[in-house]
UniProtKB/TrEMBL annotation, chain A:
The lineage of its organism: Bacteria, Pseudomonadati, Pseudomonadota, Alphaproteobacteria, Hyphomicrobiales. This is Multiple sugar transport system substrate-binding protein. It comes from Kaistia hirudinis. InterPro entries: Bact_solute-bd_prot1, SBP. The keyword Transport applies. Keywords: Periplasm, Signal, Sugar transport, Transport.
Amino acid sequence: MNSSSSRKGGIGRHLAATAFSFLGAAALVAPLAPAAHAADVTTIKVLNWEPGGAEYWKQLVAAFEKANPDIKVELETVPFDRYPEVQGPYIATKSGPDVMENNAGLELYDRRSAYAELPADVLEAGKELITYSGGCLNFDTSKSCYGLPFGYQGNVMYYNKKVLAEAGLDPANPPKTWDEMDAACAKIKSVGKTCLALGLSGIFPAYWDFPEVARNYLTEDDMRAMLTGDMPWTDPKMVNILKGLASITQKGWANASAPSITMLPDGADLFQSGNAAFAGTIISDAVNWAAFDKALGAENVGAMRWPTLVADAPLAGSFSGIESSVFGVSSWSDKKDAAFRFVKFMAGPENAELLTKVAGGISLYKNVDPSALPNSPALSQILEIIKKPTLHAGVILSGQEADALARGWQEVTLGQLSIEDWTARMQKALEQSPSKRKK
Amino acid sequence: MAAAQQLDQARPRARPQTERRMKRRELWLALAFIVPGIALAVLFKLVPLIRGFHLSLLETQGFEEPSFAGLENYRTMLDDPVFIGSFRNAAVAFATLPIWVLLPLVLAVLIFQRSPGWKFFRATFFLPYMIAPIVVGIMFRQILAPDGPLNALLRAIGLAPLAIAWLNGPNSALLSLTAVALWSFFGLGVLTYLSGLATISEDIIEAARLDGAGFWSLLLRIVMPLLKPVIGYWTVLCTSGILIWMFPLIYALTKGGPGNATTLPEYLVFTTTFQFMNRGLGAAIGMALFVFVAIVSAFVVRRMYAEGKAS
């Protein structure tokens, strides 16, 4: 009995001694461990769709955390076409991320109660950008601003020079008008390729296709009227836009799967696989010249304005440009100071360089060194195209309108809906849009 | 003697006291079992339901302050052809219920009978149920594409006329969606029926076989009557599966399209609430869906109960 308790006492002492030595060692090492700083580090959650790609975001977060060692960034990345459905519940419950991304324009305005107004020092950073009005109410920087952009965005049509040559077309002279496009598509289809890679599911048609047809019928004043809900869909100009969109699929330019696939990734995949001659996407972020250069070879990729329907339309030769997405701070965040520092960093020079070098994007920061841009024929063409910008009609559509546009186009393509009924649906969507409806 | 008398006098008083104590204990025990269940049901079912109904009476367009709207959301809902269409789609999907109920039963009986390869099929049939519905949706978006593997196979074996654009047609898209859901779900049915079949005495089956019963006769005359409660249970599960568990598949496979051909009420609740930020109207559609599912489920459960009692 005694010996046993003595043994137990011995083991207990041994354990205590071991524990103390571990504690002693831990105490010595503790000042070196990062855990000691954990209490001083603020972690902010950033909801985003990863514009520019994973590598760019990895480097962006690393650069920000290096410049702000007291802030840690936690990313919640959601695919672009599913973003509204993920962000919606956060807004409805007023909880979740500290920093959020939205498209500039109406998408942001519709959600403005979910954002904190930008303080003066953050707005100052915006003044270093070519423009930041898309983050402010009604594109007016004298009104409340809710987010800052970082890149320039807009639509172009990419083409695969190899496919054009295969179809007997001149890759140096891609089609410039609707009729030329129709003739080109006939030749491309005859060699067994898809003419225009297209996906009509989700919100892509509203952002990537609609503005390019709209430029043929609308003026900038018309677009401003759209923004305030003063341009009915029954207006002949708007009906003509719907007819123009319908003609793309009715003329057989697009792939048969268009009504049931999304442009990203499915439509873009079709173009990247080399099986389609054209794809209407965007200049930077998700599916840009850099991605296509990588997939098809820079020498095979070209970029052009969408062919025109009305050659003498005032905006027919313009570029539908917009600040790319904007980042703002959620109204419910209790880490606003850290969150605003991230927003400011996004709009700053360090990110501008990263965007250009890593993501192949086009920064809005005024003083980016042009020599930092990669050598790409498509990029050179884009830099020419963006010199004549106009408003982007896509970001002026409400969520209801964007949804009705895509679903209606699907049904029109399949011969299940007339243009008249599509127009009526668009008008109804306009009347149900919170920021546009007339009370 | 006196003590015995005292004991006799005390006895009639002690018995009711003990009984009362016993009853009180039983009551407390019963409450201990019931109250947590009731509390959970109230907290997680009744309260959200009441809140949902309250929300359906509010106008909550966008981010404006909600205001009382009475039955306006219900009026808007009934005037909306998309809402009517979504319930029509739900009815079409629901019409496939007999396949959902019978297909797993036939397969379960084949496995139960130790048909060739039964072990392999028992494992294989359950596999689709193990794949997350969102992954199933993404998978079948590729498989059912106009130039996808399914159509390539049909063309290769000389069935080119059957190689249609599965997800493009208004009817084919809805039926494709339902078929994919069935593919994903039926393994659980096979397993459920196999559990039920394990309770049927081998002697009964053997006796039926000796009497010359073939597969169908065995299925219809012996197995189905004996498995009525299990069939009823599975039918209720399938009913809810078709009406309120299709969301991940719709989301990944069709997004409710083309047009609104595959928009079911649950998907409409989601888009109205979270995409269009109209929570009041979304709640009204949710209440309509609740009533619809409750009526259908009550009918099925009632049938099941009646059949169970009769058997």
